[in-house]
Structure formats: C-alpha cells, structure tokens
Amino acid sequence: MNTNLEELRTKLDTVNKELLRLLNERAEVVQAIGEIKEKQGVPKFDPVRERKMLDELAELNPGPFRDASIKHIFKEIFKASLNLQEEEHKRQLLVSRKKQPENTVIDIKGTLIGGSAQVMIAGPCSVESYEQLRTVAAALKEAGIKIMRGGAFKPRTSPYDFQGLGVEGLKMLKEVADEFGLVTISEIVHPAHIELAEQYIDVIQIGARNMQNFELLKAAGEAKIPVLLKRGIAATLEEFVHAAEYIAVKGNSQLMLIERGIRTYEKWTRNTLDISAVPLLKQETHLPVLVDVSHSTGRKDILLPCAKAALAAGADGVMVEVHPDPQTALSDAAQQLDIPQFQQLWDGIRKSGLFTE
Ligand code: PEP
Ligand code: MN
C-alpha cells in the first residue's frame, strides 16, 4: 500500500514538473504575442479570443475534472499571462525604474531636484501683483529657498473667478526671479504657452486638471525646459505614470511628478494626501517625486506633519503656498500661509532632520 502511494507521489511530481515546463513554455509564447501587440498598439486583453479558448478546452475536456474547474484553472493561467504582458509593458516605459535604474536628477540653474538633497518650493497660489510677488521672493531669499512658484494662468472652477494675470504674471516672475536669483515654476494651460514659458520661467507646471490633457502633455514633451506634472484630481498612479510617459516619449526627460492629493469622501481636508504615492512612484519610476502639502490638505494647520510624512516617505521635495496677506488672496485664500507662518513651517522642516539641504 505504502509503496503504491510513494509511486503515485513520484508520478505526481513528474507531472508537476511537466506542467511547470509547459506553463513556462506557454508564458514565453504569451510574451512573444505581447511584444507583437505592443508594436501594433492593440490591447493585450482579448475577451473574445479568451472565451473561444475556454469553450474549446471545455469541449475537449475528457475529465475527471469538471468543465467549470477546467475553465477556472485556465482563467487563472490567462490572468497570470496578461499580468506578464503588462509587467513587460511597464518595463518598456521610458519613465520606468526598470528602464532606467538610476534617479533622474534635474539641474535648474545649479539647483538639483531628485539628487541626495531635498527642495522646498514655495510661493503664492497666483501671481497677483509685482509687489505681492516681490514680498514673497524677498522672504524666500532670506530663508535660503531657491525655488518660487506662482500661477499666472489659473484653471479655476468658476469662469467668474480670477483667472490669473497671464503673460503679465510670467513677466513679473522673471523680473522678480532675476532680482533675487530664484528659480521659478508656473502653470501653463495651453500648448501655445510653451514658448512663453521658455522665455519667462524655469519650470513648466502642468496642473491636476490638465494631467490628461494629452495635447498639452505632448507639447510639454517638446519644451526645452523641465516639467512638473501634478497628479490628476482623481487619477490612479497608473494614469499618472502614463501621463508622464506622454511627456517623456516626446523627448523631454527633465520631468518631475508631484502628488497633490486626490478627491475622496473625506471633508476635513480639501483632498486626501496619498502618502503611499511617494514610495510607489519612487519605486516604479526614476523621476523626482514631490508633495504639494497645500493643495492636498487645503489647510494651514497640518502642513508640518504632512511635509514630514512626505519627506520620511522619500519625497524629493515639498511645495507650499505662501502669500503676504492670505486673507485677501485672489485664489486659495484659505490654505495659503502668511510669511511668519511659512517661516515657522520651514524651521520645523529643517529641525526635523528629514530635510537635507
Ligand atoms: C496650483 O498648484 O496652482 C494648482 C492649481 O494646483 P492643482 O493643479 O494641484 O490643483
Ligand atoms: Mn492654489
């Protein structure tokens, strides 16, 4: 009896090994098909073909496995095969860490983003006037901060709200940045703005609302200056990474990502800061990853712990909105810090030991 069991077990081991060999032989065929589909740009998942294969297998099934069990087993094999093809697809992305293992480090007038040091990006939500911008720039300079943000083209929820100063705002950014030796970041909302951006600012920001504005992404991919891409309001990380790929594939490798919170049911914050996005994006891509604590929280009182969390999770920098007089701000008045509040936040971040300058 025992010898028989042993014999059967030996036989099972042989069958297992044969199955293993066949499964991997099948996987190689699947990979080859995946490559062809990738080149042709056709979807990897073909439900009609899958159904046909399952029906055929059930028809050929001699038992003792029931048809339903056979279908279940093969469906799992199909799922694993699709995953294999998709992993391969991800490996092929230009922004993928698998494609380029080393970090992308962006050098903007000598300020590095994505290297061993972190960066602080601060400035008003919108550029409102020369004086407003100059006041913030002076405070940043004083604090040793090198990168200033400020929106000139503002994508607002209501068409009746302040839409930004447009080109005039970009010109102010340039003038003030030149005076204080700062690097500037500002959002553009139309492909026609690329040339203006190249002329007046150092980094193009693509805002959350435009993360999947593919024509804008393509145009930014042809820009000669770096791009900071914000995560869409309800974008998955998969969508975020593919939006970045749109820019990279057009030739612009000076690309950075910024988590700015996603919309959830939570009302105590404006958006929900997805901290897990930081290590995941660092793991899956080689791009610098930043965190915008102002738009993600929509608050002023929890910025220090959120900034610390971002840095502890591996963020390459933090963005925060600062305004000389937030109460009178023409956009995002509720979340902008005044200058003393900003200095306090900055002190806290530096004292945390999480920020390497
Ligand atoms: C901004 O940074 O000015 C802005 C509008 O943010 P978001 O696109 O993340 O909403
Ligand atoms: Mn804002």
Gist?
InterPro entries: Aldolase_TIM, Chorismate_mutase_GmP-bac, Class-I_DAHP_synthase, CM_dom_sf, CM_II_prokaryot, DAHP1/KDSA, DAHP_syn_2. The protein contains 12 helices and 10 strands.
Keywords:
357 residues, alpha/beta, eight-stranded parallel beta barrel, two-stranded antiparallel ribbon, 10 strands, binds phosphoenolpyruvate, binds manganese (II) ion
The strand line-up of the biggest sheet is 3-4-5-6-7-8-9-10
Estimate the helix proportion, in percent. 40-55%
User: Would you tell me the overall average pLDDT?
Assistant: 96
Instruction: State the total count of DSSP E strands.
Output: 10
Q: For the terminal residues, how far apart are their CA atoms?
A: 74 Å
Tally of DSSP helical segments: 12
Strand residue percentage: 5-15%
Describe the global form: elongated
Radius of gyration: 26 Å
Order of helices and strands: HHHEEEHEHEHEHEHEHEHHEH
List the bound ligands: phosphoenolpyruvate, manganese (II) ion
Assembly context of the chains: single chain
Q: Ranges with pLDDT <50 over ≥5 residues?
A: none
Largest sheet: 8 strands, parallel, barrel
Alpha-beta content class: alpha/beta
